[in-house]
Amino acid sequence: MDPQKIFDYREESQAERIARKSKDSPFMIIGIAGLLGVCSYGAYKFKSRGKMSTSVFLMQLRVAAQGTVVAALTIGIGYSMIQRYLLKEAKKE
């Protein structure tokens, strides 16, 4: 009996891993780009935050960054489900 290979245990560089992940779930890469965008915007607006304390500013920035990533992943899951279940049935008919 030939045992089937279940896992591929080869070493993978960070660039190869990101390339593989972007093919598996492209909305994750969009979420990461959104996270970087929110963080860049927050770093830019940090000087003009007024009398707001640093901890409150960073807490609001964290919530905005997490919301961006969660929204991108939710849209990706919705798109994936539409492709898998709704459009697949339309192709069969």
Q: Averaging pLDDT over every residue, what do you get?
A: 83
Proportion of residues in helical segments: over 70%
Supply the helix-strand structural class.
mainly alpha
Question: Can you write the helix and strand succession as a string?
Answer: HHH
| Spatial separation of the terminal alpha carbons | 41 Å
Shape: flat
* Major β-sheet annotation: none
Total helices: the number is 3
Strand elements, count: 0
How large a portion of the residues is in β-strands, by DSSP E?
under 5%
* Low-confidence runs of at least 5 consecutive residues: none
Question: In angstroms, what is the radius of gyration?
Answer: 20 Å
